[in-house]
Design brief:
This protein is of the alpha/beta class. It has 12 helices and 14 strands. Helix 3 runs parallel beside helix 9, helix 4 packs across helix 5 (89-96) and helix 4 (61-71) crosses helix 8 (208-218). The protein binds pyridoxal-5'-phosphate. Pyridoxal-5'-phosphate binds at residues 60-62, 86-87, 89-90, 132, 158, 160-161, 187, 189, 199, 201.
């Protein structure tokens, strides 16, 4: 059996090697390493795929979030409502811009922002909401958008883990995540559902004026060569990465489908085991399973992780420390932040390998190993 990994990028690459190698060599021959043709082509193709009017590529997902907050002109001291149960990048950029992250609790079923908690956290200083489509499933965007509209707030979607996922937006129809808020942000980090061979990211918006501002900020605040209107940054997607992403985008639906099938197989195999709560997909959502994350009850999690490792099965805790408990945020003095669901999940979640190359026999070993530990 091929050794099991959390993500098997090597085998995924080998399947499209000839196409990818050709695209890389064409880029090398053209030597337009920065802002080459593939960058614009990829932005258009991704826009078409997502049904987003504007896609602005940038250097990584963290930059995308920062640029989004700069483009919306959020000011130091402005409050931004966000989950604590997420990867640190979502909230780190808020600290960098001296915004105040206001951490709210998540829904224990979807792992995403709980709209009731968002509403309770709104103050006169609140300017934006940043929902995270964690593990590959959309947050409750119908409620988030309704609250944002009611209170005049911006919505920035952190779509780094959910590219290709959809949500039923009621009267607005079925929409891809990352295209619903004022700005959507995503990452092309290699292990993401649409990953390149280095760092990459993008912003999505349907607002032409915002798109213009985002482009300017990502390029040193430049409106015209050597004329800098606002403080910006240097955040670009390399041409080589764009050329690779153009190819991988054509496989994205297939990749997401194989993740979904692996997840369905896990769900079925763990059915009826009381100590394992398998991930649920909310009605109307298409989940793209960036992670397959279960909640353990009355299971020694460290023991499980150790046992799985001894059987050749990797597993991970996403994430062992929620944002509001990170030292990074000690400057916020958050003693009264009480996020019971976040803390409860943090102690109980475990993620199993899920990727596009998971074989039947690999999955069987993973399933049997989990079962023999929790049912012993
Ligand atoms: C990966 C990730 C990011 C950051 O993307 P990078 O490209 O690594 O900077 C942001 N938010 C979430 C939820 C992520 O998973």
């Amino acid at each position: 059996m091929v050794p099991i990994q959390m993500v098997d990028l090597k085998r995924q690459y080998l399947k499209i090697k000839s196409e990818v190698d050709k695209a890389i060599h064409e880029t090398l021959d053209a030597t337009a390493f920065i802002n080459g043709k593939a960058v614009g082509d990829f932005a258009l193709e991704l826009g078409e795929y997502l049904q987003s009017e504007h896609v602005i590529p940038c250097a990584n997902g963290t930059d995308a979030l920062q640029i989004a907050m700069m483009a919306l002109e959020l000011q130091p001291g402005d409050e931004v409502i966000t989950p604590s149960f997420t990867y640190i990048a979502t909230t780190e950029v808020m600290a960098l811009l001296r915004l105040k992250p206001v951490f709210v609790d998540v829904d224990p079923i979807t792992f995403c922002l709980n709209p009731e908690e968002v509403r309770k956290a709104i103050t006169p200083r609140t300017k934006a909401i940043v929902p995270v489509h964690l593990y590959g499933q959309a947050a409750d965007m119908q409620s988030v958008m309704a609250i944002a509209k009611e209170f005049g707030l911006y919505v920035i979607e952190d779509n780094a883990q959910a590219i290709g996922a959809t949500i039923d937006m009621g009267s607005e129809g079925i929409r891809k995540t990352g295209t619903i808020g004022h700005i959507g942000c995503t990452s092309f980090f290699p292990s993401k559902n649409l990953g390149c061979f280095g760092d990459g990211g993008a912003l999505m918006t349907n607002d032409g004026e915002l798109a213009r501002k985002i482009k300017m900020i990502a390029n040193h605040g430049q409106s015209k060569r050597y004329y800098h209107d606002v403080v910006g940054c240097n955040s670009r997607l390399d041409t080589i990465q764009a050329a690779i992403l153009r190819i991988k985008l054509r496989y994205l639906d297939e990749y997401n489908q194989s993740r979904r099938m692996a997840a369905a197989n896990y769900n079925k195999s763990f059915e009826g085991i009381k100590s394992l709560t398998t991930p649920k997909t909310a009605l109307g959502n298409i989940h793209v399973f960036h992670q397959y994350t279960m909640i353990l009850e009355q299971v020694d999690r460290d023991g499980l992780v150790e046992y799985l490792a001894s059987e050749g099965v990797p597993s991970m805790i996403y994430y062992p420390v929620p944002a509001h408990r990170q030292k990074m945020f000690s400057f916020l003095n958050l003693p009264d932040v009480d996020l019971p669901v976040t803390d409860w999940l943090t102690e109980r979640v475990v993620s199993l390998p899920i990727h596009t190359e998971l074989d039947q026999d690999q999955q069987e070993l993973i399933i049997e190993s989990v079962k023999s530990f929790v049912q012993q």
